């Protein structure tokens, strides 16, 4: 089954999916030989996708046997050449990477982020997720790491904090 076939089958039980579109879907290899599925949707429709996120992701994971992530299509604009040109804040590299991070961890919440700097200049982003859905999310942590690396090119560790009560 393909992503389109699964979504078409879901339209009977969830009529809100009928108006929603996907731009593309791609597989990202995870270290243990499995793949994660990234479904890229138009940015303007991302809020509507979040409303049906749980039902869609559960069905895609059940039918396709891959951890699934729904993210919005965002573009990064380069720095303007002249001072008269303006680049929106939402199109900067940093803003797009932050938004991608929030998209892939949805519906979980990020409670803290730390950037570790190694002696050689390497950076590692440590992302602490809210432990409320720890049982469900802990199996997805390697997939989160692989998808974040593929989309942003940055290393990240996803953990559940010990300091959160």
What attributes does this structure have?
165 residues; 33% helix; alpha/beta
Condensed summary:
Helix content is 33%, strand content 22%.
Helix and strand arrangement:
Layout: H1 3-10, E1 24-29, E2 35-41, H2 46-51, H3 53-64, E3 68-72, H4 93-105, E4 110-117, E5 123-129, H5 134-137, H6 141-152, E6 156-159
Parallel strand pairs: 2-3, 5-6
Antiparallel strand pairs: 1-2, 4-5
Helix pairs in contact: 1-3, 4-6
Mass-distribution shape: globular
Largest sheet: 3 strands, mixed
Note the run of SSEs as H and E. Answer: HEEHHEHEEHHE
Report the total helices: 6
> What is the β-strand count?
6
The proportion of strand residues reads 15-25%
What does the model show?
- It is globular, with a radius of gyration of 17 Å.
- It has helices spanning 3-10, 46-51, 53-64, 93-105, 134-137, 141-152, and strands at 24-29, 35-41, 68-72, 110-117, 123-129, 156-159.
- 33% of the residues lie in helices and 22% in strands.
- The protein contains six helices and six strands; from the N terminus they run H-E-E-H-H-E-H-E-E-H-H-E.
């Amino acid at each position: 089954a393909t992503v389109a076939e699964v979504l078409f089958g879901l339209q009977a039980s969830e009529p809100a999916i009928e108006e929603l579109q996907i731009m593309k879907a791609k597989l990202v290899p995870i270290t243990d030989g499995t793949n994660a599925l990234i479904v890229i949707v138009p940015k303007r429709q991302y809020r509507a996708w979040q409303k049906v996120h749980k039902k869609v992701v559960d069905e895609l994971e059940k039918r396709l046997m891959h951890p699934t992530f729904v993210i919005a299509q965002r573009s990064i604009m380069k720095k303007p050449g002249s001072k008269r040109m303006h680049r929106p804040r939402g199109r900067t590299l940093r803003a797009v990477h932050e938004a991608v991070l929030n998209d892939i961890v949805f519906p979980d919440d990020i409670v803290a982020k730390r950037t570790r700097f190694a002696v050689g200049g390497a950076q590692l982003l440590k992302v602490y997720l809210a432990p409320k859905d720890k049982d469900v999310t802990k199996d997805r942590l390697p997939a989160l790491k692989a998808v974040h690396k593929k989309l942003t090119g940055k290393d990240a560790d996803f953990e559940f904090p010990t300091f959160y009560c």
